[in-house]
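[step 3/7] fold_predict: job queued, chain A
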Amino acid sequence: MKIMVVDDEQISLIKIKEQVESFDFVTEVAAFDNPKHALEALKSTPFDAAILDIEMFGMNGLELARQCKCIYPPIKIIFLTGYSDYAVNAFKIRASGYLLKPASNEEIREELLYVSNPNTKASTSKIRIQTFGNFEVFVDNKPILFDRNKSKELLAYLVSRKGAYASGNELLAILYEDKPITPSLKSQLRNIIASLTKSLNNAHVGELLLKRRNQLAIDTALFTCDYYEFLQGNMDSINSFMGEFMNNYEWAEFITGYLESKNW
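[step 4/7] structure written:
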């Protein structure tokens, strides 16, 4: 990859340049402390990605990103700044990444690898969970078929818990709202869990479900999820959120409100 780094602070510029040069997949790094010089260089060199500071003398990074896109539309923009306030404006110009200083080598490396091949993460993860819009679970891009709607809802709730365990009583309260917890209702929950286990096993992803005495969770390391990536600041996931989250379920409405309130 050919990378352009722009920052008007020399110390920061040198550090970022050294970080990027340490990555084996990077073939060229050009560093500029003047945005206008960076634009001139872009006219003759098709850089794959630009790592830009935002608050700079003469031209801020947002305007620089717009002009970079005009000169060379395929270029991927990653903002690396000391301020979180500009994330929503970065979103508007379709930035590919937004990192806060000081960023670690691993953070920068992950962003560059992602923009070089945005499908890398998905291709190495067998399971993909969609929460924006309706809730769906895909294995090798094929949707899992659930025998019961309640078993699918149970999995959706566990996804919303982000790996935290949920007790049987908590699950009953979610799945059956204000119904009193009775032995009969507990028996229904056991049947729902058995149905969910069967559906996951049939899709060869039974390891997704974690069980311990009267508690359930999911192994978040085994799948990709638009909701989780949104919370991590992934710009593609932020761009894909259209105000709808797990539309299938009323209990998910409070999360929808939370996502809408995020000041990206």
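[step 5/7] annotate
The chain has two domains: 2-118, 122-225.
The chain is about 45% helix and 20% strand.
exit 0
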